[in-house]
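Dock magnesium ion; give full complex structure.
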Amino acid sequence: MLETKNLKFESNNYLKPNTYMKIMKFGGTSVGKPERMHQVKELITRDNQKKIVVLSALSGTTNALVGIGDALADANKTLAKERIDTLHKHYLAFYKELLKTESAQKKAEKIIAEHFEFLNIILKISFNEAINRDILAQGELLSTKLFYTLLQELDIPAVFLPALDFMSIDENHEPELKKISEKLESILSNYADESFFITQGYICKNHRNEVDNLKRGGSDYSASLIGAAINASVVEIWTDIDGMHNNDPRIVDQTRPIAEMSFDEAAELAYFGAKILHPASIWPAQHHNIAVKLLNTMEPDAPGTTITAQEVGIGVKALAAKDGITAIKIKSSRMLLAYGFLRKVFEVFEKYKTSIDMITTSEVAVSVTVDDVSHLSEIVKELEAYGAVEVDQNQAIISIVGNMIAESKGSIAQIMNCLTDYPVRMVSYGGSRHNVSLLVDAQFKNAALQSLNDGLFEW
Ligand code: ADP
Ligand code: ASP
Ligand code: MG
């Protein structure tokens, strides 16, 4: 279930209109090669509108940093050192191709030396989770500093905005939007005449003032939060594909971009597995009614996808899927005609801060799905007080998203007709106007997505 829990929406009068500024976020592949970084420079300088440019790490870097942290967590310093050296070589080759002048190259050498010295020092001290998060932050720090050096080399005036000076999360890992907004407005007020601001996606400070992050893919979330914090005119997410497609292009043959969709539809797709957007990246823009555009760095004039409050069209628009789902069934004859049973069940999940995605009930049983299994054994133990508990792992949720699906005639029949070859374990239909969710064993996910693609869309 899409959650906007713990969000501090009530006090948003702090926002001053700032419709003259836009956000342009570029993902890993958009900055992953020297020529792509040059392309990003072209894109941000196409007009003179004030903008905050949010960059991810170069593609592959965060995975490499995760690998370094994993090796250190296993106390395998030799492997960690090998991984650091491989990444280091990549950056040494990258800057030489990115920058032409001696002075810019010198700056880049210094930047790279500092960050790899930091990683090498970490090899010598005892490893913990806070240090791991410091390691993960190096990618966005490197990409933004190298890009900023490129702008300096080309005499393009820009301001470097360290995200760690304004981006923060609280003890529940929720972004502190009011604080972010106040800090950003105060920083920006020092640069009334500047047009280009460069900052890092993904990284932030936590309530202990340590370096933290917004989880994998979190640069989209940073962009939307920054957009909401300054009330930007638009949040542009520049990536390696021409917008949100109607199905997962990594899995399904024949997908096509969707020109327009609503915030609710995009949020459902992001939450239920459309990798193009971080799962939480829609709500900040949605709450402040700021359009989000998904655009292709490699094909900048393609229309992409525009996401606004407007609901366009009726019926199924797109599919997404999320694996790693666990289904939990609680069966109890005591549920029959009993009130308060569901409350007790939900309280167990609440106690362990585990959010439920799908729910189905019958007179004698309730089935729910979760993706966070860190407290599964405690949850199962407590649920056993209310009935027999069955757990099925390796499930996948297929989410069918559109507008007024439950209201369109025959839509459920059409969906089910595509799935005659696959056992459907749960169905959630009518809970929202935008979503029908199905639970299938993960082994059927890809085939079911293809079959739904063939049956639900006209080609
Ligand atoms: P970035 O590095 O720019 O953040 P991501 O790799 O995170 O890019 O997201 C873009 C990728 O998302 C695409 O290359 C595509 O393979 C994948 N993707 C998955 N589902 C969809 C979808 N429904 N529409 C478009 N892209 C999708
Ligand atoms: N670099 C981070 C990641 O790979 C954040 C992002 O790219 O959005 O997850
Ligand atoms: Mg991404």
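Observed: The pocket of adenosine-5'-diphosphate (ligand 1) is lined by residues 27-30, 56, 217, 239-241, 244-245, 248-250, 274-276, 320 (CB under 6 Å).
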